[in-house]
Structures are given as structure tokens and as C-alpha cells.
Amino acid sequence: MTGRIRTVEVFPVAVPFAKGFVLGSGAVGTPDSAGDVLFVKITTEDGVVGWGEQRALPSWSYETAETIAVVIKRYLQPLLLELTPFDVELFHRRANRVLSPSVSNGFPFARAAVDLAMHDAAGRAAGLPVHALLGGAVHAEIPLCSAIGVDAPAAVRERVQQSADYAAYKVKIAGDPDADAAAVVAAAEVAGGKPLWLDANQSYRPAALRQLLGAIGGVPGLHCVEQPVPSTDLLGLRRLRAMIDLPVAIDEGSFTAADLARTVALDAADLVVVKIGKSGGIRNALKTAQVAQANGVELLASGLTDCGIGFAAALHVFSQLDLALPAELNGPELLADLYVGGLRITKAVATVPDAPGLGVEVDEERIRAEARDLTFT
Questions:
Q1: Per-residue confidence at 47, pLDDT binned at 50, 70, 90?
Q2: pTM
């Protein structure tokens, strides 16, 4: 067993995008506007290192780069210095007492970054890949879904053509039925019948969504619509599901296994999107998946435009699950750099890492060089 955690370091980095990416809730990043990623490094008293990361995307959920950094250094670090990397469940139990989860999940992005670093260090200490610590991979490869942001029809068509190797397309929609219908039709024209996964990111009213679906009813490949209404409107999601024929997926409205249990009790969704970040870590994401599987809710896999550490962690998690569609893990597609080596992606199929820990080599020198000071005012 490796020793206790000795140091916890946090590196905020403005990670550049290779392509612009816009959601129904706003822009994630553009080549001229980088997005904040918090990298976390833990080191044990016997020199074992683990890395984690998490994107700060306050247009998607409430945590900012500043809050993630403060929560980790001020509230989570004192807990970690009493633990080893193997004490993941104990860490989360104590974190729940320090930062109340309220009705869902308390500061999940900050906790997920730490959780990933603990799993990475534990795997490296044991000489095992993270998936082996979780019970072993079922799938050695993960097909990927291309992410098509909100854009004009011509740009959408071009992006789908550029992503011809991908097995499915997640098409972002933004609450304008006419504009969204034109974009979906444009995607379908060049998608070759591959699945189209529509994602509204909370941007629709029920009547407007019915208008959109009426306009695109004949489009081939429509698989589901994700989080059409605000995350807090679970009853609205249930009403909407009864109003339309297209299967409904919940994402922002379900962070935890308990959230999904409420969704199931209300019969409000057909599918659930599993994300490590919103779950607060790897094992919590798997708990959500277990609730879904026990209740006949299908699984979709996603991330938040992760760099290589988060992307690798997602591969370990999703290697254990049977997914309804290819995984929408879009970091390799959208970012200018992943800050790691060791990933293998061939024709939009990612190989699950098999080296110890998360199985990637982190570019620590670059992370340290590009880390910025966060100003608190």
C-alpha cells in the first residue's frame, strides 16, 4: 500500500481550441478564446504521482476556475493529506460533510479533478490500469461520436463531412426551431444515415420543440433529444416526454445516482448522459450507470471537451458499460492540444489505455509553463 498524500498542486490553464464549439447555452471555446482547465497533481510521501483535470464551464454548470481552485486548495486538500490514493470512498464521504451536496452534488467538478488524480496515483502504485481497479474492461475500444456545434447549415454540413470517420453525430440545437431544423437537415444530408443525437442544452420550450420535431420528422437517423428543457424542470421533462415520439435523454438535470433515481420514479427520461465531471468522479459516474441499468434507462457517454487526462479517465469508465451510441468525448476533435502522450485514436475509435493508472504521460513541463495566476477580487 502506498503512503499518504503529501502535496496537492492545482494548475489553471487556458487551453486553446482548434475549432469553435457553441452549445445551446453559449460558446465553450474558439481558436481565439481558450477555455479554462484545472489540472491537479497529487504526490504521495513515497513519491507516487497522480494527475486529474476538469474544465470550468459556468455556462454549463455553476463552478468557475476560481471556485474549483479555491475548493480544492482550501477545503479538499486538508482531507487529502490524511488519506492515501486508495481512500476514494472515504474522501468523498468526508467531502460531503465539508461541502454539503444539498439535493444533488456539491462542487462535483472540483471533486472530480481530485478523484481522477487519486485513481491515477492508485493505479500507478498498484501497477494496474484504472479499469482493472474498477473490475476490468469489457470493451478494449470505444467508438467516438462527432460533436457538431451550433452553426449555419453550410458550416454544419462541412463539419459532418470532415467527420466522416465518426460513427454518429451529436448535433447541438439552440432553441430556434427554424434555424435548428435547417442545421439538422444539413447534417442528415451528409451523415449517410448514421445516428443523429440532438442536444438542446436546456434551450427549448416544449411547444417550440414540438415545432422543431414536426419540421424534421422525416429526417433519417434521429436517435434522441438531450436535455431540451431547463435542468431544474424535471416535471416539464416528464410532460415533454409524453408529448413527443423521439426518445428523451437527461443530462444537466441528473448529476448523481440519486438524481437519476428521482428521474426514473417520475418516468421522465429514456436515456441518461453519464459524465465523470458532473458525477464528481469515476465511481460516482459508475453508480449512476448502475441505477440506469437496473431501471432500463439506456446510457449515453459524454464529457466536457476534456484534455487527455479527462479523456483517458472516461475511456476507463466507459470500457465497462454498454452504450446506446458512440461516446461523445470531443476533446481530441476540438482542442489544439491534449497535454498528454500515450493515447491511441484510429479512425474515430479510441483504444482504452492499459498502462498503470490512467495510462497517459502528462506534459507537466508545459502545464507548469502555461499555468496562470487566478485573481480574486
A1: very high
A2: 0.95
